[in-house]
Write a structure and sequence with these properties.
The chain is of the alpha+beta class. The chain is built from two helices and eight strands; from the N terminus they run E-E-E-H-E-E-E-E-E-H. It is globular and about 35 Å long.
Amino acid sequence: MPLESIVFLEANGNYVKIITVDQVEFLVSGNMKYWENQLKKRFIVRSHKSYLVNLYYVMKVGKVLHLKNTKVKLPVGRKYKNDFMEAHYKYVKNVERLY
């Protein structure tokens, strides 16, 4: 599965549910910390204790994240908000630089 197809990851006990752009769900072993470490250089960032989000799919940031190609809205945790906002800002600036 290409990393670009991952929209977000959701904690599910000792497993993590991966949701793709095609709305396909995969249940994989490992906790959120493991997956956060594996994906941290791939523009997939922690937004909440239960969610990792692919910045490419973030359409709008507020109290919740609005994602492209889906009606799903994900919460932004207070503990993760500053780091998430910084990562999102850097991502947007990098994308703008390409155009």
